[in-house]
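Please produce the structure of this protein holding pyridoxal-5'-phosphate.
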Amino acid sequence: MIEPFDKIIFVTRPVFPTIEEVTDKLRDIWAAQWLTNNGPQHTMLEKELKAFLKVPYLSLFNNGTIALIVACQSLRLSGQVITTPFTFAATPHVLSWNNIAPIFCDIDEETMNIDADKIESMITPKTTAILPVHVFGIPCDVEKIQEVADRYGLRVVYDAAHTFGVEIGGRGIGTFGDISMLSFHATKLYHTVEGGALVMHDEHTKQRIDLLKNFGIKNEEEVVMPGINGKLDEMRAAIGRIMLNYVEGERLKRKRLHAVYNEELAEVEGIKLMPKVADNVKLNYQYYVVRIDEKIFGRSRDYVYGAFKNFNVYTRKYFHPLCSEFTCYRQLSSSSSANLPVANVVAQQVLSLPMYGELTEDDVRKICAILKSFRS
Ligand SMILES: *Cc1c(COP(=O)(O)O)cnc(C)c1O
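Below is the modeled complex.
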């Protein structure tokens, strides 16, 4: 008999800086008497993040969703954009907010990212861009996606909300495609409480995006485009600067816990572990996700999800339901299950297990023992 945990183990927990570090930074803000609109904390954080992420240009935002809405505006995307149904609701919603129809493309069985080989078949004369997501921090097939985009003259905007600090061959993940969006929400590996950023390749795009996130205000006399309020304030920028000192430590703790999960679950029939990546990929270990094949494991994902709660373990069914199942999208022809066979299977099998630096190795071993006890 395995005893339940004596406290609830959630799927993740935000990283908290010390209260002293925060009050120190608040003193700096009070001394500067500057709360928002491109203050000193904001300027410093942009500079520090560019270096940390190895990207040439970056623009901070109040959250990742507004950032992605602005990315579509800045490239003047319209018509249809090809994306994945296996993602967080924000991804297709951003297209809707731009009056763009999301077109759902099936995913790759191994990486769970958009299947680059199927994108071409989804292109129509109305297609203007591809919006892939590096799901669970595993990079998309960036080369193949760019090749298709180039062949058809399409833009590529990445939802890189899961990929803070990920690199391919020493190159920052944010530098692929035309623009990448990062989310700094509290539940992500790196956070500013709420926040986000866009990464772009040139000064001109950065200027346009900076205008769009500040109502299109160029100067006191001129408003040059219909912008929105996407600004990150000084308090959150200050927290972001503190959190930069924590992110590598948190990543390494999670890397260790990933290894423990992999070791404990490697031989369990019916449990598929996270996808393997090429040797030149630096991961961030933000999530730990398994897939449960009911036919082999003897229990369904939904059974496991429910049974874990009896042990005080609260897992999450990311991403179930698929975005193509939402009432606002299920009438689209690309939402049909015939178009999305792989995504429909993966969504029934996937389960996010607890992953955060404060978990101990013993906690992870116990979670794995509980999981194994469900076999039948
Ligand atoms: C978190 C997340 C977002 C939204 O980011 P916010 O900063 O919460 O607005 C978008 N896409 C994906 C895949 C996410 O995980």
